[in-house]
Amino acid sequence: MTDLADFIALSLLPLNWGHDIAERLRAGTRPGQVFESLLRERWPGDPSRRADIASRTAQAIDRAARGGLAAVTWGDAGYPPALAAIADPPPVLWTGGRAAALIDRPCVAIVGSRAATPYGLEVAGQLAFDLASQGVTIVSGLARGADSSAHRGALRASGTTVGVLGSGVDVIYPREHLSLANAIVERGAIVSELPPGMRPDPGFFPRRNRIISGLSRAVVVIEANEKSGSLITARCAAEQGRDVLAVPGNVLTGRNRGAHALLRDGAKIVESADDILEELGLFVHGCAGSRGRAGTTDPILACLPAGEPCDLDTISERCGLNSARLLPRLFELELQGLVGRAGGGRFVRFDRSC
Fold first, then answer.
1. What are φ and ψ of residue 94, in 5° steps?
2. In this structure, how many other beta carbons lie within 10 angstroms of the beta carbon of residue 147?
3. Is the dihedral of CA 205, 213, 157, 337 positive or negative?
4. Which terminus of the chain is less hemmed in, N or C, by CB atoms within 10 Å?
């Protein structure tokens, strides 16, 4: 099999093998070797498994080709480095629309209740509109309620938005969001780790939440009750070192207990898009160079030899920052045109000035 087919085969293995797959890929093992070793270890003496996955891999490639879908693999230059840095990144991201939408701007996730109140819908839409107007890509789950309002808010601003699905990217769920998905594809992308044709399943949605947070620099929670799936996304964000923010709401209905619990636990309160932009340090204007306020060389740039791609672990070891603190700084340097992305979740410094 080609590398593409090998990555797809890895994605068809049980989802709870993701941590092991990621560890072996990060160690430099080829995807085909990872696949073969896992088959020997987990399913010894069962050749039917290999044949079944080979068949499903071919079907996925064929269906994607017929549907105009792209497969962005873990080793591609276009694979989002922030997502590559999580504990169990998807071996493949199936995408419809502009795959570049996953990496060309800073991303913020807006998530909330499927049964959002008019207040929650308005807040989600307004925050998305204001952030998208400032060049931020809005990530959400294409679900009913707050998610769809966030996508629509970004589109009203003629901005970019990304929908992360709990089904194949050619199986839009819920079905009433087909026109919304088509509009997202025009300006952004819909993505899934699941192969084309995969029907939605309740077990897929908690898994897709780690992708929503993994693509994003921050997660904003709106109207989440104590059992909301949005809290799963917030927990993933905290584990991944992302910022968690929450919008306060009515204390009488019980709809906001989950979001208010996040605020009690230290999440930043959000009353406007300015709060989010300030938290992410995106109020910096003008052309920034590679030197700090006091004229000293940026310590992260100093750890990146020009033209030499480095992964997060290497940069972290050199500069002494953990990934939770390092990723936001790398994104800022990327926005300044000083750092770019290479394949396999690596970054490279550009030898240029303003």
1. -85, 130
2. 30
3. negative
4. C
The C-alpha atoms of residue 321 and residue 143 are separated, in whole angstroms, by 36
Query: Residues with Cβ < 8 Å from 176, sequence gap 6 or more?
Result: none
Residue 43 domain-assigned (yes or no): yes
For residue 95, the SS3 value is: strand
Cβ–Cβ < 8 Å for 191, 93: yes
Q: Let me know whether 33 and 115 are in one domain.
A: no
pTM of the model: 0.80
CB neighbours (10 Å) of residue 99? 21
**For residue 294, what pLDDT is reported?**
29
Task: Give the tens place of pLDDT for each residue, 139-150.
Answer: 999 999 999 999
The reply to whether 237 and 170 lie within a common domain is: yes
Select, from the ranges 82-91, 245-254, 276-285, the one with the highest average predicted confidence (pLDDT).
82-91
User: Which pairs count as long-range contacts for 55-61, CB under 8 Å and 24+ apart, including other chains?
Assistant: 56/12, 56/195, 57/1, 57/5, 57/8, 57/9, 57/12, 58/5, 59/195, 59/197, 60/8, 60/12, 60/195, 60/196, 60/197, 61/4, 61/5, 61/8
264 and 303, same domain (yes or no): no
Distance CA 219, CA 280 (A): 11
Is the confidence at residue 125, as pLDDT, over 80? Answer: yes
- CB-CB contact of 287 with 354 (8 Å): yes
Residue 251 tokens read as 């204390």
Query: What element of type H or E holds 329?
Result: helix 323-335
Question: Domains in the chain: how many in total?
Answer: 3
What does each C-alpha distance from 134 to 11, 152, 157, 161 come to in angstroms? 35, 16, 9, 13
In CATH, what number is assigned to the domain containing residue 309? 1.10.10.10
What pLDDT is recorded for position 165? 97
For residue 328, the enclosing domain spans 299-349
The runs of H, that is alpha helices, within 240-283 are 257-264, 273-280
